[in-house]
Queue: 2 jobs
Job 1
Amino acid sequence: MMSPDISIVNFYSETGRLGLHQDRDESGESIRKGMPIVPFSIGDTAEFLYGEERDVEKAEQVELESGDVLIFGGESRMIFHGVKSIIPNSAPMSLLNDSNLRTGRLNLTLRHF
């Protein structure tokens, strides 16, 4: 029997953070198969960290802007990852004006459980 797909929703204020971690809540089958994790970024830019170890000093960093999608699966499925910081007032003004979204970062993460 196949596990269901789910979406996790996180909202980060301008002081929001998320320490380096691995996503291990899915079924063993999903993890063994390297089923991807797919986060969508909406709103303010996040300084996103990732690496092979749970060590902030060794982690790579990339900025995820509004509209960015990051996919990690297969061999990279178990990377450590987290949010170092949120860059305040970096969301596109048209998004805030048209959607009435409050300032901050909305992250929608799709996973196969």
Job 2
Amino acid sequence: MFISEKEIEVRYAETDQMGVVYHANYLVWLEMGRTQLIQDLGFSYAGLEKDGYLSPVTNVNINYKAPVKYGDNVKVRIWIEKHGKLRTTYGYEIVHTDGTLSSTATTEHVVVRKEDFKPVALAKIDAAWDSKYKEIVKES
């Protein structure tokens, strides 16, 4: 299984009144991880958008295990959990530098045409990208 990693240095602005990272910021980190994975595979989400397509999130699930605080450094680990004709599920772990698991997550996405949000199979847009996802997917 191919796993990509993105390092995150926690900024003060990402924390809440309790001194821990505000839960919504994890969504931003997941996006950063997805972008890193796509780049590591040699593709470009910005290029997908330029070609007239989007990949909106249709579902997100985050399980918080241990807090992350200002000044901490964490890694977002990301992989392809599932990849079907229209839907891709990404898997994530956010891990402290000492190896402590902070959270786990999944996001589901579909590719749609920008003009009308009609779903389109990734294989029809970029066969190489689709093939790479099928090659590295966790679940066969």
